[in-house]
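hey so i finally got around to running the thing on that chain from the lab meeting. sorry it took forever, my laptop kept dying and i had to restart like 3 times. anyway pasting the input first so we r on the same page abt which one it is
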Amino acid sequence: MINHADMVSVLAKSGDTIASELTGKNAHLLHMAVGISGEAAELLGAFEAEAEGKSLDMENVLEELGDLEFYIEGLRQGLGVTRDKVLNTFPSVLVAPNGDYDYSGWYAVKISTRSGDILDLIKKVVVYQKDVELEKIVKELSSLETVLDAVRDSCDITYEQCLEANIAKLGKRYDGFKYSDSAAQTRADKITVEIPEALLNELGTFYNIVENKVGSDITEQSVSRKTNQLSDGKKYLVRLDEINSRCILRYFEETL
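ok and heres what got predicted. didnt touch it at all, straight out
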């Protein structure tokens, strides 16, 4: 009897074969579907941190919601459908579990689930050479829109704010809104800054080393960013709860 590893080796479709069959349109659909799934996971991570006792980073939530809208719009364009068509073709109703709770985290799980379903449908098109099941994908997109609306509502964020945040972010990343691999890798909207020992001493007690963007729009709220591992022994901007962050702002104003 064949063992599992050997079975996978002979049954997994060759990457070379997939690449040879790949069309520009299907590559775009896969790119967008992978992006949706990845951003859904990042949004879920924000609520996971809250479930672990950390304060919910609303700036991060807005950013991830905006990133999701980028890939969702890209997928719709690849499929030749509009947001209005998605919303009107399969109107969806979200039924939350019973109980008087904040369901934001539960909604985020639903977003991740719907995103995975969309990715699976696109995988079958790209890898199995199956025809696009437009009705099924549009239905999943409609369900995703419903849950996204619930998350936005629970966080007091509008759809328009998500789009504006995404435009502002990518406007900083891509000069003149022109894509390049170099700009995608550099991510000019996210600059990691090493914090000198003197500033760390001024801050006092701190925890949760994080990545932070630095720019002309820096505010007291923007010092709290995504949780990130300490890398290469360097000390980076820290996430603060009750510690006064004005010393950080003053440092950047004086040195940047």
